């Protein structure tokens, strides 16, 4: 038999989700701070970085690499802010489940907001991929024996699009749930 | 609303107060008051049954339908 948490109580799933979201929130804040600090660092130590990186390439890279890299960091920062927005909304939805009143219009709005945020993250992720391509082409050919590894997946993903759809549909489900609750409240 | 609740008339006919009825049918006065004033959106069969049993009436005595067009002046 499945145990569903009643008002004020938390089952293992809710508790784990709350703890995980708390950790993700901290990680996103930490990453955002690092990214914000990296922007002035790039401005101050940009020439040194370029000189160091330039040793691995046939032709010394131009200063435009720094500008594109700064754009890359800013897009990444925007993604982090959207991640924070999504995590924060999910924490609030989770809190409403704990309080015993999840089927309300506010949660519908939150889920819709999360769906839009993740959609924007998908678009920005594709932009990151394009920026990496620009940086690699600006750096040019590498010296013999040197190797550069770029890891990570950028761009639109099927799972991301499915997640956006899931959230938008769930938002409608919560709206309908709120309507049904209103109807039930007026039943004698 | 086109459906009118005649709880007031039935209570008067049975010489019963809303508080007494609330105690007998085990429904809060607040909810019965919502029903009486026509603010309720729906009524459960169990509630209807309990009220009809206590007030010795038929559901049709408690609820009446008035077509909005009938009330319009020509």
Q: Sheet bearing the most strands of chain A, described?
A: none
* Helicity of chain B, as a percent range: 55-70%
Query: How many strand segments of chain A?
Result: 0
SS-derived structural category of chain B: mainly alpha
Helix content of chain A: over 70%
Give the helices and strands, then pairings.
The complex is a heterodimer of chains A (188) and B (74).
Chain A: H1 12-54, H2 64-99, H3 105-139, H4 158-185
Helix pairs in contact in A: 1-2, 2-3, 3-4
Chain B: E1 3-5, H1 7-13, H2 18-25, H3 29-36, H4 45-55, H5 59-62, E2 63-65, H6 68-71
Antiparallel strand pairs in B: 1-2
What does this protein structure show overall?
- The complex is a heterodimer of chains A (about 190) and B (about 70).
- By secondary structure, chain A is mostly helical.
- Chain A is about 75% helix and about 0% strand.
- Chain A contains four helices and no strands.
- Chain A has helices at about 10-55, 65-100, 105-140, 160-185.
- The longest helix of chain A has about 45 residues, at about 10-55.
- Chain A is elongated, with a radius of gyration of 23 Å.
- Chain B has about 70 residues and is mainly α.
- Chain B contains six helices and two strands; from the N terminus they run βαααααβα.
- Chain B has a two-stranded antiparallel ribbon.
- Chain B is globular and about 40 Å long.
- The mean pLDDT of chain B is about 85.
- At the A-B interface, loops of A face helix 3 of B.
